[in-house]
Specification:
The chain has about 425 residues and is of the alpha+beta class. It has 14 helices and 13 strands. The protein folds into three domains: about 110 residues, Trigger factor ribosome-binding domain (Alpha-Beta Plaits); about 100 residues, Chitinase A, domain 3; about 150 residues, Trigger factor, domain 2 (Orthogonal Bundle), CATH 1.10.3120.10. Strands 7, 8, 9, 10 and 11 form a five-stranded antiparallel sheet that branches. The chain has a four-stranded antiparallel sheet with strand order 1-2-4-3.
Amino acid sequence: MKYTTEAAEKSTVKITVEFDGTEWKDALNKAYAKTRGRFSVNGFRKGKAPKNVIEHAYGKGVFYEEGLNILFSENYGKILDEKKEEFTAVGDPELSVDDISDDKVVLTAVTPVRPDVKIGSYKGMKIREFAYTVKDADVDAELERLRERNARKVEVTDRAAEKGDIANIDFVGTVDGVKFEGGEAEKFDLTLGSGQFIPGFEDQVIGMKIGEKKDVNVKFPDNYQAEALKGKDAVFAVTLNSLQGRELPELDDAFIKDATGSETVADYRAKVKERLEKQAERNSTDATENSILDAIAATAEAEIPQAMIDREVDSLLQKFEYQLMYQGLKLQDYLDFIKVPLSEFRKNYEDQARKNVLNQLTISKIIKDEKIEATDEEVEEKVAEQAASVDKSAEEYKKTMDPRQYDYIRSDIIVTKLFAFLKANNEMYIEENKE
């Protein structure tokens, strides 16, 4: 086998591989041994006909496709391994046959590869740093949510519907006087003010009395999932069947102990504040790192292969699918409901996927250029920390570790060092957080 590689357009590498007649003959013999059971020839039991008899009956090229597959599969990986210092394949190649005869076979593979990223600047920039703080009002809001989660439902009969009530309704929706699919239900429980329905719907149910019928006039958003309803005016004939209010428990020590296990309201407030402060610290770190990446990526350029974007879309879509699973939904059921095919739905993630890939490439480039590494001692120290957090010795903990955990720990140390380096080499400033 002989091969050459050359850079091609759009972050691809053209690999041209030539096999001599002996290699080609050997591949055809392997193809015959692998596939002969598929062929029936008069006078022979199935799978027992000689190679030349099958070729005479089905044509000389009967084993070509499988032979070419064998040649490529046995050698492509070797080539990538030999050239790993020059390029990294990031997707499947486009294959073509340039020449084929008894004497030789020439194959061409156009392979998408990890692109080089050109960074305009990553030092001496002015970049916003985030520092979220926890206020007493944040703790109060958490306590209020605890009360909300433990609220008791009570039947309401003596007043009109209010925000926060659970309204049991029948409704029939029409556009231009015609019913549309998914726009009709009976005895549907709707929490008023939840934003579950399109804008304006719940606001018009507020104020209705039990037994009242009312036409609710709304307009579907321009970005609504169902194409046929985007931007359309609609009328919902609504009947309010019943109401349930929510009775909140008193915020006292007895409630807190029953609901959380903490002895007093003060104890629980302290725990909530500590948890929120840790979350605020994580959010500050994440927001600052994203701010740094956004600033640097704005100066970066890379010709990203579609294969890398597709792979990142797969990852984002999988995360969304997991979120649906936690809600008891399947992705296909969700797509059927919003009437959007998967191929179209994937497009919603392409911009974010492209941004994520560029950020990943940027991170890798800076790490390589600045020679940022994690030493074995740093990895061992981190392993010891994790072991201590679960009350184990380092040696005991190592016995339970998956080898991939070491890679994750090493990567985490390197990325932490990277952002420490970037913060130290750029002018970081903090704006007042008004959120």
